[in-house]
From TrEMBL:
CDD domains: TM_PBP2 (cd06261). Its main location: membrane. The chain crosses the membrane at residues 27-48, 87-108, 120-140, 146-163, 170-192, 226-246, 275-298. Belongs to the binding-protein-dependent transport system permease family. This is Sugar ABC transporter permease. One of its GO terms (cellular component) is plasma membrane. It is found in: Cell membrane. The keyword Transmembrane helix applies. GO terms for biological process: transmembrane transport. SUPFAM superfamilies: MetI-like. Residues 83-298 form the ABC transmembrane type-1 domain. It comes from Haloterrigena salina JCM 13891. It comes from the Archaea. InterPro entries: ABC_transporter_permease, MetI-like, MetI-like_sf.
Amino acid sequence: MTDGGTTEERSTLRRWLDSDIVQSSPFWLPPFLLMGFFVYAAIGWNLLLSLTEYSGFGDPDYSNLGLHNYRAMLDDPGMWAATRNTFVLLVGFTVVCLIVGLLLALLLDREIRFSRSFRTIYLLPFALSFIVTAQFWRWMYNVNNGIVNQFIGLFGIGPYNWLGSPKLVLGSVIFALVWQFSGYTMIIYLAALRSIPNDQYEAARVDGASTVRMYWRVIVPQLRPAMVSATVTLVLFALKAFDFLYATFDGYRPRRGADILATKMVRESFGRSEWAYGSSIALMLFVLSLGVIAPYLYNQYKRGNL
């Protein structure tokens, strides 16, 4: 009985040692430990810091932990405004990018003349950094000499202070970001379109479907995985739009109407030395990011893609 139990335990141990996860551990375990120390430990410390009243001077007092920073967030009008602007930026930027990228991909999928040149031109803004894009659009939106105001002036409209008006600034930021990232979504869609067999196009034409109906009824529904992947990436880009806003407005104090959670987090932490309050905002941003990427990763895992 004992020998049988020991043999069975050895067999189980041998199977476990021969499993893929153990055999591959030299490749994934070191980076996992490094990530655990430099990333996950930092997130845990940030959570602990958000429960204190630390202001950046001396050492944090961990003896009096509480949720006062999170209660202060509920009573802070600036926090509500930054949260609203963040969600408007997320939804507006993501939706418009997906639509523009899809239209560009469908256009280039038809192999129009100079399609490769157009593809390069549309993708070029994505290769630029947030800093370069911000400086470019500051010039484009300039009240006196900007091309945007000069163009609409031909029709007797304007000029407008695109980056100074609370009603226009967030839309102007979204437009600039769409200009930069629509090429990325175009490439994602285009790769998905090229993976669809030609038989499906031919079958739709044989059935008498028009080009618009063929794409809308047959092709676009098959782009759902590409759309989900692009959506997750775009949302994460939008949450990290701090670089663009910092370069556009020369600091972490953007115009009223363009303040988002990322800029408020930095302003509270480094501008007002409210490190604990800034940590609570950072944790909120982390939860938002996790809420976007966790369902996507779980879905990919269930599909066997991870």
